[in-house]
Each structure stands twice: as C-alpha cells, then as structure tokens.
Amino acid sequence: MAALLARRSAAAQLRGYAEAALMVAGSTLIGLAMAPHWGNAAVDLLYLPAVLGAAVLAGLGPALFAALASALAYNFFFTAPHFTFRIDSPNDLVTVVVLFAAALVTSQLAASVRRQAEIARTHAARNATIAGLARRLLTCTSEREIGAVSTTEIGALFDCSAVLAGADAHPIAAAPAPARLMPADAAVAALVLESGERAGRGVDRAVPTEWQFHPVRSGAAVIAVIGLARDDGASPVAADQLPLLDNLLDQVALALERGRLEDEAREFARVRERDQVRSALLSSIGGDLGPPVKTIGNSVRALRRAGAGDKALLADLGAETVKVERYLANLLDLTPESDRRPVEIDGVTIDLFQRTVARDGEEVHLTPKEFAVLAELAKHPGRVLSHAHLLRTVWGPAHEGQIDYLRVAVRALRQKLERNPSEPELIVNEPAVGYRLKVQ
C-alpha cells in the first residue's frame, strides 16, 4: 500500500507539472492571438490565471514552475528581439521581472490556501476514521470482540497484519487470524507493556522482531499492546500516520476499560447472587433441621434420665445427635463473612471477595490475569503451586506449557507489589517447580 501510494503521489506530481505547462502554453497562444491587435501591454496579465490554476490544482511546485515558465514564455515571444531569451529594452526587462515576482507571490498565496484545504480534509478524514472505529467498538461486549474489531479495522487501514495482546502479553485477537507471537515477539510485547514506549521494526528502539509494537494506554497505565507487521518487511506505520494511530489506540483503550468494568460488574453480581443463594440455603438448613435435631437430643437426654429404654442404644443415639448438631453449627458458620477476610502479608492486602489489592493502604490496579495469578497464590499461602497448575487455572488447560505467560504476569506483580522487585519477598520462585506466596 505504501509503495502504491508513493507511485500515485509521483504520478500526481507529474500530472500537476504537465497541467501547469499546458496552462502556460494556452496563455501564450492567447497572447500571440491578442498581440497583433492590442499590443503586448495586457499579455503579461494572461499568465497570472495559469499560475493561480497551477497553485490551486497541483500545489506549490507546479505553481513555481508555471511562474518561471510564464516569465520565460513572455520573454521569448513578446519582448524584442523575439524568439530569443535576450532582452534589449530596460522596460521589457522590468516587465519580465515584475511578471515573475507577481507570479511567484501569487503562487505562494494560492498554494497556502490549497495546503490549508488539504489539512482540513486530512483532519476531517482522520476524525471520520476515529469516529468509525469508536462506533464499531460500542457494539462490542467482550475483550475478544473488542480485539477482533480493533485488529480488523486497524489492519485494514494500514494494510498490514495486526495482533492485540493483553497486559500479560498473551494475544487477544489478530487479523488476519490466526496469528501467534513467537517467544521473541512476546518478549518485545512485554517490554513495551513495561516501558510504555514503541518498539520493533521501523522505530528508534530496534529489537529483533518482525512486528512493530505500540502501547495501548489508559491514563498512565499500559493495559494492552498492539503489534503491526507487513509481509514485505517495511514499516507498517509512517511517521506522519502515528498521530492517527495513537488516536485510534485511545479508542481501543476506552473500549477495553469499559469491557473490563462491565466484566467486573457482572462478576460481582454473580458472586453476590451466589452468596445470597448460599446464605439462604444455610439459613434454611438451620431453620428446618435445627429444631428437630434439638428436639431429638432433648428427648434422648430425658429418656436417659428416666432410665427408660436400652441404655446402649440411647447412648449411641445421643452421640450421633451431638455430631449432627455440631455439623449444623459448622455449616452455619460458613457464611460469606468468612470469605471476606482479606489476606495481609507484609503491607499487601489481598481481598479476594472485593477483588481488590492494596500496598500500604493504597489500591493497586491489576489486570484480570495478574489478579487471577495472585488470587490463586493467596488461596494457598505458603504453598508452592506448580507452573502447570497456575497456567491451567488462569489461562486454561491449553496453555499449560506457556511458561512465558506466567513469567510476564509474575514480573508485573512484583513490579507493582514488591518493595524491591529485584529481590522479591512476597512472590517467591521455586526453581523448576513454581511460585509460592510467602507468609510471615
């Protein structure tokens, strides 16, 4: 696409110079027809419309060419001696110089007007492109749908392949699908997520990858990264197109944040509904079974005091009744309040029920995958969880071998939660085994 655009631009420039030459030639023919009848006094004014036309239609370069050609044509055809570029009369010399100066100023003014019009058209086209992407993203309800629309639209706009990766450097969607990031590509994506700077082919920060990665920001945080690549190996985004790409990525970031908030709201609603159902069931169990069991226990104790019945049978019945009462009491203790106690380790507070994490009282924003890894470790504090277990729990069984995903998430957690990320004390690595959440 870039090569095609370059060829079209070169062809348009040549066409502009040709049109300027034709307009100057037309003015000259009209002047040659007028000069025998009315003299040369008004002929020089015939060239100004040609210069204006070249500036408006083709730009500054063809307009300057038209100005120079007009001065030379007037000198060649209308000043003595004719059909030469030599000028004998001072008056003719002044006329040619003034004609060239007037044409030069006129071309500059007309070209400036044309540039302003082109800038306005460019801004309008860019705004229309941004609005179109935003309109399509509004219909998306999940992260995968947002990724599919974003990569399809941006890939088509820049005529390249596109892949959107989340905050864990794991691909969300790609166009054309499927697209897989190699370990080196995932490492560069993780670098962009961490540094917030562009990296890859065709940018200042050159790294060994075929992709050009750009951060997707939400405020100061990088929540995703988009990779662009062309089959011919050229840079997918030109320098003058970077502002447009940044504006499009802002729309993607808004959509991702909206999707994340909607997912969290739905998850919270599911958890609240589950807890309400569980509380209702436990209350029902306590209300329905508690009184009959208590009545049975009282009856057994009354029979034993009266000395009636089989003593061994009553003793067994009494013991079983006590067990049932204890089981019911334990069930009633399993209220949602027991799940709401946060895990606190070295200034880090992990609230699994509210799905919040704080460091020294300040809330820390985690991506869904980062929170899922931390939550799984927090459910088993002090216990080593294998790489396969964490990958299977967080990413699913199909990704048990993708240890790079887990390393990226753990590195991000350490950057956000550890006092000294280079010497982690919260999330400890057990070489060749897995990770554990260190307890005091």
Series of secondary-structure elements, N-terminal to C-terminal: HHHHHEEHEEEHHHEEEEHEHHEE
Low-confidence stretches: 1-5
Question: Into which percent range does the helicity of residues fall?
Answer: 55-70%
Rounded mean pLDDT is 79
How are the strands of the largest sheet arranged? 2-1-5-4-3
From the helix content, strand content and strand pairing, which structural class follows?
alpha+beta
Characterize the main sheet. 5 strands, antiparallel
User: What oligomerization state is this entry in?
Assistant: single chain
Could you tell me how far the N terminus lies from the C terminus, measured between alpha carbons in angstroms?
Answer: 60 Å
Tell me the radius of gyration.
39 Å
Written account of the structure:
The chain is an alpha+beta fold and 440 residues long. It folds into 4 domains: 2-135, no CATH class; 140-261, 2-Layer Sandwich (Beta-Lactamase), CATH 3.30.450.40; 263-338; 343-437, Arc Repressor Mutant, subunit A, CATH 1.10.10. 62% of the residues lie in helices and 12% in strands. The strands form 3 sheets. It has a 5-stranded antiparallel beta sheet. A 4-stranded antiparallel beta sheet has the order 6-7-8-9, covered by helices on one side. The longest helix has 65 residues, at 242-306.
